[in-house]
Amino acid sequence: xxxxxxWRSKLDVAYWRSHLIAYHVLRIMRVIFIGxxxxxxxxxxxxxxxxxxxxxxFMPWGVAWGDAWGYNSExxxxxxxxxxx
Length: 85
What we know:
Elements: H1 2-51, E1 56-59, E2 62-65, H2 73-77
Antiparallel strand pairs: 1-2
């Protein structure tokens, strides 16, 4: 009976230890993924700004790229200039 209790407690320890390891591995992977994604976005934005081929506009609702959704630089520059009535 005593040996059975010891064996069960060892199984419980192994079970919870495996869950703890999986939890920490997933946390580390999440941090790595977020860092990797942030690095990719920084590279994309830096490359776009440096090349000059694609302009990035910081609009009130987020970031819009140059030719996406029909925007171009001339249209954006004249966006707030209303015609004289």
